[in-house]
């Protein structure tokens, strides 16, 4: 399929009839008929769309930008610097979401931010810090639930030039984590003093849709295997339901191999034989743990990109969302993760040339052994960013 | 500074609390590897101790046989009382009587029939004897190459509640719910055990692993209780780490982590992660500690029905658990001898079983260890 230079986006609410631009019937029919994504590339994140009623020709795409806490602002600066050098046609709409005051409850994210993301359909965000202790709700969870971003996609790939214990295995795993329920419901109560209960909820609808997302993703990216991660031998009804839904969805995708693995065995296999995994679909908590193990396999928390997808929106953030408050402001953070995340974003908004430019620049800089401290080098965040900018300028002028 | 370890609020893992020396003698005691206690000044090598042996299913009988042979060659003062637990008999009365009498048991792998609806046999044993703490020391075996060679962690996992309470239902069709319970009692027990273990085994740091930023009340209670217990052990460093960060740190740099204390689910996952770092479940010992000094040591791998009866099984896990048991009973010298014989056999890499990359049989491996012991 060739796409016209007009950018095509999924609309959250359909427009009134008089604003619909007419297109050749054949094009609309083919676009509406498929529920597959329109953008293809090695790292793209598909958005499941139903109907298209609106196209927009944009000279500059507006993207919401939320710097976040800890190392977030420095990483976002890095992205802004690189995008500026590459002259990416993106217009940023910056919103700050501050930490909730202690002891607060109720919505922490203001309606402006949510409206902005819904309007722009795409956002880039830094990490939010969630403190332990009753009364400080998680802004990450709130954002995901408010926008119904049910799938968290973390593609973790071995990077040439970063030496890890598993470098020779060329790890290439995509973790698709259910993002809205499971253990993260926040439904807790103290039954009697000293006895606390916490509810974990799994619904058939949410399990089915995350499984469907995972299989669609695998199909579009040309992946061969989807592995469901669970603990259904102990949690027979909750994880059992998750597994059952995955199995049902698997029947619709006979070309993709489906298998399942128990979470404890999965963690063991990940550190011993990670090459057996391809796409992994997991409930919420296990997804969090598996993401962290997989990020460590490729070199650390600073290296994996990620995206929260659902409800027609995509909010991109670095995969293992470590706030790293101890190194915040010290110019030590590793911007590779956020830069790769920004390339995912660019592919999603149909700017693949810029995405390739930035991705190649980052890989080139890493091969030149310009690395931050967490992966064994001595460069600062700014030095690494400058090296990427220099490479981008050199590539563009050649 | 003597600790009053006879106070009823303190649940001691050792069988010989009354004879514990004052803490200044701890530095003179040998560093234990898979030990549960080092604080003994009396030798009880003369008296024979009866231990319940549950061979288990699949490769269980062969590896139990191997362990009993090695213990005989080492001259360990252990008399074995073999009882059987299997799918038909379940945890029968004679098993219970035996463990209650002997207080210490060694268990091979038990198969859990999948999907049959009845409680797993492992879980049944755990409930019958109130085994509240699961201890899994993971130490890189010198000479056996994995991608990690500096692992020296101990996972102490709360074994009775948490996510494995088994309280599940479907309130509405299509919605399943599972209830996780955390209590002050259970958290305190396991935290106290963890700190005492650290003291007894010359460990420096205890890390409480949690997810209290999301599960604020449940993991928050666990965390608060660990903090409270930490104040009673000022010589041990205490830190807290989120479970996702723990998984990341273990995969990146496991040398930084010492003793961990965790609730049930996280403990399950992290202990298997640590086992993966050192080479798998075939090399990992495990002990379950209960009230009144009851302890059941076990091999945590599966029953391997595909190689059962073929003299191919690797008895290392059960053997290392048995060594842990010997230390629990105070037989440090014999435990040390068996341990060095086993580790040197594996480290030499010549006479090792198929799962470790060798070609030897169970009997060859056993005989080599016995030969080393007799030297």
Number of strands of chain A: 14
Mean pLDDT over the residues of chain B: 85
Largest interface, with Cβ-Cβ < 8 Å? A-B, 61 and 59 residues
Class based on secondary structure composition and strand pairing of chain A: alpha/beta
Q: Could you say which overall geometry of chain A the principal axes of the C-alpha atoms support?
A: globular
Portion of residues in beta strands of chain B equals 15-25%
Secondary-structure map:
The complex is a heterodimer of chains A (398) and B (375).
Chain A lengths: L6 E2 L16 H9 L21 E2 L4 E6 L5 H15 L3 E5 L16 H10 L1 E4 L13 H8 L4 E7 L14 E7 L9 E5 L2 E9 H18 L3 E6 L7 H13 L6 E6 H10 L6 E4 L1 H15 L8 E4 L2 E4 L19 H13 L3 H16 L13 H17 L1
Parallel strand pairs in A: 3-4, 3-5, 5-14, 7-12, 10-11, 10-12
Antiparallel strand pairs in A: 1-2, 6-7, 6-13, 8-9, 13-14
Helix pairs in contact in A: 2-11, 5-6, 7-8, 9-10, 10-11
Chain B lengths: L48 E6 L5 H15 L3 E5 L10 H10 L1 E4 L13 H8 L4 E7 L12 E7 L3 E11 L2 E9 H17 L4 E6 L7 H13 L6 E6 H10 L6 E4 L1 H15 L6 E5 L5 E5 L16 H14 L2 H17 L13 H13 L1
Parallel strand pairs in B: 1-2, 1-3, 3-12, 5-10, 8-9, 8-10
Antiparallel strand pairs in B: 4-5, 4-11, 6-7, 11-12
């Amino acid at each position: 399929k060739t796409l016209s230079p007009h950018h095509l986006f999924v609309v959250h609410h359909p427009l009134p009839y008089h604003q619909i631009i007419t297109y050749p019937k054949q094009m609309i029919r083919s676009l509406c008929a498929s529920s597959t994504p329109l953008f293809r590339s090695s790292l793209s994140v598909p958005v499941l769309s139903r109907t298209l009623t609106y196209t927009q020709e944009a000279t500059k795409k507006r993207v919401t930008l939320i710097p976040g806490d800890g190392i977030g602002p420095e990483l976002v600066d890095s992205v802004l610097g690189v995008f500026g050098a590459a002259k990416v046609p993106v217009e940023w709409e910056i919103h700050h979401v501050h930490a909730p005051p202690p002891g607060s409850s109720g919505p922490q994210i203001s309606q402006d931010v949510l409206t902005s993301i819904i309007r722009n359909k795409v956002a880039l965000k830094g990490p939010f810090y969630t403190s332990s202790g009753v009364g400080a709700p998680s802004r990450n969870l709130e954002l995901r639930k408010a926008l119904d971003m049910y799938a968290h996609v973390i593609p973790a790939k071995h990077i040439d030039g970063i030496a890890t214990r598993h470098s020779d295995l060329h790890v290439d795993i995509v973790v698709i984590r259910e993002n809205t329920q499971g253990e993260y419901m926040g439904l807790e109560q103290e039954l009697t003093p000293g006895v606390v209960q916490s509810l974990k909820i799994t619904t058939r609808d949410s399990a089915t849709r995350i499984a469907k997302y995972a299989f669609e993703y695998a199909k579009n990216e040309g992946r061969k295997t989807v592995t469901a991660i669970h603990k259904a031998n102990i949690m027979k009804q909750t994880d059992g339901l998750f597994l059952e839904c995955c199995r049902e969805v698997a029947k619709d995708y006979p070309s993709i191999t489906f298998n399942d693995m128990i979470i404890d065995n999965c963690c063991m296999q990940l550190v011993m034989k990670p090459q057996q995994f391809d796409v992994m679909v997991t409930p919420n908590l296990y997804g969090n743990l598996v993401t962290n193990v997989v990020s460590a396999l490729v070199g650390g928390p600073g290296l994996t990109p990620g995206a929260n997808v659902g409800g027609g929106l995509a909010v991109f953030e670095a995969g293992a969302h470590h706030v790293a408050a101890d190194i915040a402001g010290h110019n030590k953070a590793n911007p590779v993760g956020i830069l790769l995340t920004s390339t995912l974003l660019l592919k999603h908004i149909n700017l693949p040339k810029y995405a390739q430019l930035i991705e190649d620049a980052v890989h080139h800089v890493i091969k030149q052994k310009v690395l931050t401290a967490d992966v064994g080098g001595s460069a600062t965040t700014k030095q690494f960013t400058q090296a990427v900018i220099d490479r981008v300028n050199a590539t563009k002028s050649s | 500074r003597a600790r009053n370890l006879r106070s009823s609020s303190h649940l001691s893992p050792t069988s010989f609390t009354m004879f514990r020396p004052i803490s200044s003698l701890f530095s003179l005691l040998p560093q234990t590897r898979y030990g549960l206690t080092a604080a003994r000044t009396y030798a009880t090598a003369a008296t024979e101790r009866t231990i319940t042996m549950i061979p288990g299913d699949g490769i269980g009988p062969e590896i139990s046989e191997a362990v009993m042979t090695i213990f005989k060659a080492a001259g360990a003062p252990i008399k074995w009382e073999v009882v059987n637990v299997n799918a038909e008999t379940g945890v029968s009365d004679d098993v219970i009587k035996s463990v209650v009498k002997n207080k210490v048991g060694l268990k091979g792998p038990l198969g859990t029939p999948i999907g049959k609806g009845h409680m797993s046999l492992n879980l049944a044993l755990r409930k019958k004897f109130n085994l509240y703490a699961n201890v899994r020391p993971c130490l890189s075996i010198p000479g056996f190459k994995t991608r990690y060679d500096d692992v020296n962690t101990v996972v102490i996992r709360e074994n009775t509640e948490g996510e494995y309470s088994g309280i599940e239902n479907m309130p509405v069709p299509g919605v399943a719910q599972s209830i996780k319970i955390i209590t002050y009692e259970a958290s305190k027990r396991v935290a106290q055990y963890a700190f005492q273990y650290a003291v007894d085994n010359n460990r420096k740091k205890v890390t409480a692993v949690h997810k209290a930023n999301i599960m604020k009340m449940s993991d928050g209670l666990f965390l608060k209780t660990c903090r409270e217990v930490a104040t009673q052990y000022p010589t041990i460093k205490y830190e807290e780490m989120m479970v996702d960060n723990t998984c990341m740190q273990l995969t990146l740099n496991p040398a930084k982590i010492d003793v961990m204390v965790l609730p049930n689910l996280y403990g399950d996952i992290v202990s298997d992660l640590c086992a993966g770092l050192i080479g798998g479940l075939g090399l990992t010992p495990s002990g379950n500690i209960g009230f009144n000094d009851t302890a059941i040591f076990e091999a945590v791998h599966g029953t391997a029905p595909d190689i059962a009866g073929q003299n191919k099984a690797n008895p290392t896990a059960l053997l290392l658990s048995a060594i842990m048991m010997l230390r629990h009973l105070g037989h440090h010298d014999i435990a040390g001898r068996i341990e060095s014989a086993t580790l040197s056999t594996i480290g030499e890499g010549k006479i090792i079983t198929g799962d470790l990359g060798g070609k030897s049989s169970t009997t060859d491996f056993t005989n080599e260890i016995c030969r080393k012991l007799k030297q």
